[in-house]
Design brief:
Elements lengths: L3 H9 L70 H9 L4 H14 L1 H15 L8 H6 L2 H10 L15 H20 L10 H13 L4 H40 L8 H36 L5 H17 L1 H4 L2 H10 L5 H15 L9 H13 L6 H17 L6 H5 L10 H20 L5 H19 L5 H16 L2 H9 L10 H20 L15 H28 L4 H7 L9 H5 L4 H17 L3 H14 L7 H28 L4 H18 L10 H14 L4 H23 L5 H21 L5 H17 L20 H15 L12 H26 L9 H4 L6 H18 L1 H17 L7 H5 L2 H15 L9 H15 L15 H5 L8 H14 L8 H19 L6 H7 L22 H8 L46 H7 L6 H7 L39 H4 L16 H5 L2
Length: 1215
């Protein structure tokens, strides 16, 4: 590709060396048709030139709002209407060929009338209700016509056809594009070269495309680009005809003189000359469109216009590669890859995908690929997911269809995206990975069966190397669309797993585990037919066809695994991790298959045997939990074989209960040895696992468990190995009792006994919170949270029979739970150098997850009313310090508490600050406390909590007033005279952090409340003066109408209003400026000091670079602003510097961006007409900043699906 300097020279030079068209941008005039001598003189030709209207008002931010134009008639005379033509396209009911032919017939009869009708049709397509009269057509040039229509622009209606939504307007756009393409096609042999129709049409479109009205610019650009596409197709046909004619002419000339047909030679020569003239005329028109419209509009301020340009240039490059497929045109696609709007970048990538699909274009794209490959690689992490998806697909085409392709290091940047949360990007990366694996297999010619196994081996190796072993389901989902056949090859998978080591596909231990994980995830995907969590917002409803396909897949896997699964379980029964994965398979079976075929019943018996054997062999929680779920599924009453399964499970449970009861007496008497304790503990652990999934209340395990717990707490001789499963069994027993009671009519003695059991377990759990064994203490807290919630008063409301079951926590229990949070959740982890290794990191993550579950359980009690809302103060006071670990939980709790009671929530926030205030080191003296680190952290916490009240200040008026009143009362506790400073007065400085959220009337009310509590006269205490100033500052500013000086406020007040067309005066202040009653909070708000982040990057990254405010040079061009724009390489800067800014424009930039309300408009031409402040953009072009690849191409971590689950055992029980 050319260097940036060369590119700039090409654009500056009248004859662009990178283009096959010569620049012919001189103004063209419409030629008048030949008339008879008695006919009146022809009209004055209209010049093609750009529109610059210095008399038009501009909006403050350069944005224009398009709308319909009023019906105007500025000249007398009957207008030529284009209503029939427009209505035919809008309705879409007429055949487009007929519409074009009818208009061409009318045009051939009267060229001027036909052209006038076409001009009005163009104006009408822009949404303009005005029209061009015959007098305007004869006496005005295009510049004057467009300027006249622009001045009468009305903004009451903000839509125009191309911006309207709905099927009718989408059909109109399609019909408009078809109309223009057919028009060129029908005229390609005659009117296309008359130098009148299309020259005049392109002149009008060029003028409209440079208009300051968005509707004109958008519509004319679309029409011009579609005309250009049609011209490119005609030029291709003409080029083919030129080559054919030239070849025939040369063939005739090669004959001997006496054999030559002179008439044929002359005819061929004439035809060749005529075709060359047509080719030159087409080149001239295409050059006019490209240099006059495309070069300016591809960087337009409106993203939709830039999208049109990028879409059409992709079509030109593909259809006429001999002319367009070179660096002079490809550079526009490369530059626009840096556009700040995702939809524009996406269209650029789509255009490039169409080019890279053609292997014949690979040679011409080598220089472009080397120049922009890094940018395309960085776009796989684009902040717009659709762009990232398209970029991955583009890289696959580059790798497949170019000689160099992608290096292995570049491919490795794509692989991790198979684990991305966005399904589109993940599937694109999965398709990329699939083709890479297949390309490796293609190097070795293998049989079909061996190829299947080899593919699975490569996939397993990739999964192991990625080290994302918890996300196999995301890998399977990413590959499901492209490699579904391989992933559903159950026969190959199971045969590989059943082979012993040393055979053909004998797998290593790690490979077996990975293959089992992938296989089970594929089973889930085939049975459920929906992506995993976080890749789909909800389960979609399948169509009937998809449901049938899903049922077929489910039956197929069921028929295969029913036979094979017992063999796999027998082989891997000793491996806890592998057998846990295998036990998930029956949950996706169509279990009716067991009863539909009598020959399969023996496999049910084999499965039950293996299941019971695994329970008796393992003691891992995950394995036992998986076994309990399978047993519960097989024992469901809806299956005919459930009695057989129930018998096997009951026999297993009987053996476990007998094992437990046989050693219970020795345990309670203290005479049990270690083996007996171990036997009892293992039996209870297995029973507890089944209790979580199956009702075992009939086996009366509650009282023995309570006896063990009480004895263990009193004697301190029983280890947690026995206490924890006993605690689980007791809690699950009470959970199932609640389920049974709610579905029946219990007796009063039964309710009384259940209530006593609940209180007994409360007392046991409370005692366990203070023990030293971590596992017992943590499990007791989680189960206690679930137990309090199940037996809370809120869950028995509406059922009078169950009111006696409501068991609220006692005061001592609340205090104990609060102390537990402070001692074991909100604590800083100890920095142990030995924890820096991998095992230490996993241990820290496990501890953090456990603490998050405990905090979530406590906050759930607050939200559901089990604990008072004031109990959340123990959580809120750690909002800032522990935000990194628990921020999402605390923020959600704060949000839910505001829904429960906004005022109590605000009071709780104040209470949390009061508690921190009381814990300050007062023994050091007040002055040292004021400057201590603890006091600064408390004020920082107050600032963060103040921000959680949101921006709707009218909604939070009462909560904020209540918070301030509580804070003032706390500050003046014990204040009797002005000589003694109250002990809590320093709290007012913390309270002042909430003042910026107050409205004017609330500030006044709080000042009166402050004067009533404070000594009279008000002392000059520093803290009191600071708080008074925080209240009075905003009140005085609002009373005086003072304009704030904060940056955010200046931005808000600099916007111009949307003016009404019914007024005859210009307005200068935007209606978006807050009214006095709505904006008082801004005047003292600390939000105003926050700078708006400059979101200039198109890739996800942590830190964003600051960007300077760009200059604006011409209307409608893309400004490199923070809102929207496009970054561009250095060559564009040189290109734009050839249009120097005038002295007037430089002076205009120094003026403020808004006018005072009383400042009259300085635009002389508009006078008392409509204001265009929000309709017209600045009459300047932007100066685009140079793109630095390092600013937006930084690598970012991949967003992986979350594996955090704060669900408790209660939620799993009743799910």
């Amino acid at each position: 590709m050319e260097s940036d300097a060369d590119s700039a020279e090409q654009l500056d030079s009248p004859s662009d060396s990178g283009s096959d068209f010569e620049a012919q941008l001189r103004p063209k005039k419409r030629r008048s048709r030949a008339v008879a001598p008695e006919a009146p003189p022809s009209k004055r030709p209209l010049q093609m030139s750009t529109v610059h209207s210095p008399h038009v008002s501009h909006s403050s931010n350069g944005m224009l709002v398009a709308g319909h134009l009023d019906q105007v008639c500025v000249q007398e005379g009957s207008p030529a209407t284009a209503g029939d033509l427009y209505e035919a396209l809008r309705s879409g009911r007429s055949a487009m060929v007929t519409v074009v032919d009818e208009w061409l017939e009318s045009y051939k009869q009267d060229k001027e009338a036909g052209l006038l009708e076409l001009m009005n049709f163009v104006v009408q397509c822009c949404g303009c209700k005005g029209f061009v009269t015959k007098e305007m057509f004869d006496s005005m040039e295009n510049v004057e016509i467009i300027s006249r229509l622009t001045k009468d622009f009305n903004e009451d209606c903000s839509g125009y056809p191309l911006s309207s939504t709905g099927p009718q307007w989408r059909r109109f756009r399609t019909c408009l594009c078809e109309f223009l393409q057919l028009l060129v096609r029908r005229c390609q042999n005659s009117l296309l070269y008359d130098d009148y129709l299309f020259s005049s049409l392109l002149a009008l479109l060029t003028g409209l495309s440079d208009s300051q009205v968005r509707a004109f610019r958008h519509t004319s650009t679309l029409m011009a680009m579609k005309l250009m596409t049609a011209l490119v197709e005609v030029a291709m046909d003409v080029s083919t005809q030129v080559e054919t004619t030239q070849r025939r002419y040369k063939a005739e000339m090669c004959k001997e003189v006496e054999l030559r047909a002179q008439e044929r030679l002359e005819k061929l020569h004439t035809s060749y000359t005529q075709l060359q003239d047509q080719q030159e005329e087409l080149q001239s028109m295409m050059n006019t469109v490209f240099k006059g419209i495309f070069v300016h509009r591809y960087r337009d301020l409106v993203p939709e216009i830039r999208v049109i340009c990028m879409e059409e240039i992709g079509v030109w490059l593909q259809k006429n590669p001999s002319v367009f497929l070179n660096d002079g045109y490809l550079k526009y696609l490369g530059w626009t890859l840096h556009d700040k709007q995702g939809v524009v970048r996406q269209q650029c990538v789509r255009s490039l995908k169409a080019l890279y699909r053609e292997k014949d274009f690979a040679g011409r794209l080598e220089l472009f690929t080397s120049r922009f490959k890094e940018r395309m690689l960085s776009m796989i992490q684009d902040k717009v997911n659709d762009v990232a998806q398209e970029a991955i697909q583009l890289l696959l085409l580059i790798h497949q269809n170019t000689e160099e392709g992608l290096s292995e290091e570049e491919c490795e940047r794509v692989y991790p995206l198979v684990f991305a949360s966005h399904r589109g990007s993940a599937c694109a990366a999965g398709n990329f990975l699939y083709h890479r694996l297949c390309s490796e297999l293609d190097k070795e010619n293998q049989e079909n069966e061996k190829r299947k196994a080899a593919f699975l081996l490569l996939l397993v190796s990739f999964f192991i190397q990625t080290e994302f072993h918890e996300h196999a389901m995301y890998l399977v989902d990413s590959l499901w669309d492209c490699a579904g056949k391989e992933l559903r090859d159950w026969e190959t998978m199971t045969s590989m797993l059943l082979q012993e080591k040393g055979q053909n596909w004998g797998l290593k231990d790690e490979e077996e585990g990975a293959l089992i994980e992938v296989m089970i995830c594929a089973v889930r995907q085939a049975a459920e037919s929906h992506p995993p969590v976080s890749r789909a917002p909800a389960k979609r409803v399948l169509r009937v066809k998809d449901q049938k396909a899903q049922e077929q897949q489910r039956n197929r896997l069921t028929n295969h695994f029913i036979i094979v699964l017992p063999q796999l379980m027998a082989k891997y029964s000793a491996d806890a991790e592998k057998v846990t994965s295998l036990l998930k398979a029956p949950l996706h079976f169509n279990l009716e298959t067991y009863s539909s075929n009598s020959r399969l019943e023996k496999y049910l018996d084999l499965l039950l045997v293996q299941l019971c054997g695994i329970v008796e062999k393992h003691q891992d929680d995950e394995v036992l939990r998986a076994c309990a779920l399978v047993a519960c599924a097989l024992c469901a009453e809806r299956y005919s074989f459930s009695a057989r399964a129930e018998m096997s499970i009951s026999q297993l449970l009987d053996r476990l209960v007998d094992q437990f009861t046989s050693g219970l007496t020795d345990v309670l008497q203290g005479g049990a040895d270690e083996d007996e304790l171990y036997s009892v503990a293992i039996a209870m652990k297995r029973i507890a696992a089944f209790s979580s999934a199956k009702d075992l209340t009939g086996r009366e395990m509650l009282q023995p468990c309570l006896q063990i717990l009480k004895y263990g707490l009193e004697s301190r001789e029983i280890s947690s190995m026995v206490m924890v499963p006993a605690l689980k069994c007791a809690c699950f027993h009470l959970f199932w009792e609640k389920v049974k009671i709610t579905s029946s009519v219990p007796s009063k003695p039964a309710l009384k006994q259940l209530r006593q059991n609940v209180h007994s377990l409360y007392a046991v759990c409370q005692s366990c919170l203070s023990v030293g064994e971590v596992e017992l203490r943590d499990q007791a807290f989680l189960l206690l949270c679930d137990l309090l919630l199940v037996y809370s008063s809120s869950l028995v409301q509406g059922n009078t029979a169950l009111q006696t079951l409501a068991c609220p926590p006692s005061v001592s229990l609340r205090a104990e739970m609060s102390s537990f949070l402070l001692d074991y959740v909100f604590t800083e982890p100890e920095n142990d150098p030995q924890d820096d290794d991998e095992e230490g990191e996993f241990a820290k993550i496990a501890v953090l997850q456990r603490c998050r579950n405990q905090l979530a359980g406590y906050c759930k009690l607050v939200i559901y009313g089990v604990l008072d809302l004031s109990a959340a103060s123990d959580v809120f006071k750690h909002y800032s310090k522990f935000y990194k670990d628990y921020g999402d939980i605390m923020k959600e709790t704060l949000s839910k508490s505001k829904i429960v009671s906004p005022i109590l929530s605000a009071k709780t926030v104040c209470l949390s600050l009061q508690q921190l205030y009381s814990q300050l080191p007062w023994e050091q003296g007040e002055e040292r406390v004021r400057f201590s680190q603890e006091f600064r952290e408390m004020r920082e916490l107050a600032r963060h909590l103040a921000m959680t009240f949101g921006v709707n200040l009218h909604r939070v008026r009462k909560p904020l007033v209540a918070l301030h009143k509580d804070g003032i009362q706390f500050a003046f506790q014990g204040a009797k005279d002005a000589d003694k400073i109250p002990h809590n007065l320093l709290f007012l400085e913390t309270l002042s952090e909430f003042s910026f959220k107050l409205l004017h009337q609330d500030r006044k009310q709080l000042l009166g409340f402050l004067k009533r509590l404070a000594p009279t006269p008000l002392p000059a205490w520093p803290s009191l003066r600071l708080y008074r100033h925080s209240l009075e500052m905003g009140r005085r500013a609002s009373e005086k109408g003072h304009t704030p000086s904060h940056p955010t406020q200046s931005i808000l007040t600099s916007k111009r209003p949307r003016t009404s067309s019914k007024t005859g005066t210009d307005m200068s202040i935007d209606s978006s400026v807050p009214r006095k009653k709505d904006s008082q909070w801004l005047e003292s708000s600390s939000i105003a000091s926050l700078a708006t982040p400059p979101l200039t990057s198109t890739t996800l990254k942590g830190a964003l670079p600051q960007t300077s405010v760009p200059r604006v040079d011409r209307a409608g061009s893309l400004a490199a602003s923070d809102e929207e724009g496009a970054s561009e390489p250095e060559s564009l800067k040189d290109f734009m510097e050839r249009q120097p800014a005038s002295r007037t424009s430089l002076q205009r930039r120094q003026r403020p961006v808004f006018l005072a309300p009383s400042t009259p408009s300085t635009q002389s031409d508009l006078g008392s007409h409509l204001s265009l402040l929000t309709l017209i953009e600045e009459d300047e072009e932007p100066e685009m900043d140079n793109f630095q690849s390092g600013d937006s191409d930084s690598d970012t971590p991949i967003t992986l699906p979350s594996t955090r689950h704060s669900t408790s055992l209660l939620e799993e029980l009743f799910s």
